[in-house]
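Board notes (copied after class):
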Amino acid sequence: MTGVEIYKKQCAICHGNNGRKGLAGAKMIPESKLDLQERIALITNGKGSMMPYKDILSKDEIARVAEYTLTLE
């Protein structure tokens, strides 16, 4: 799956298709200052109300979705 496909399946429910939904305290992705490695760590380990995805997605899938989040405006 591509980063956008993974995002739509795993992330859009809380973050929305454009990264600005904010459901259940989800951060506004386009406003994030996190770099790629920080995003990978956040997706991998979760934080606050965001669950960790390390047991759901492979490292490669996590990297692809993290890269995709950098394109959200």
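Comment from the instructor: Residues 3-69 form a domain with the Cytochrome Bc1 Complex; Chain D, domain 2 fold (CATH 1.10.760.10). The chain is about 45% helix and 0% strand.
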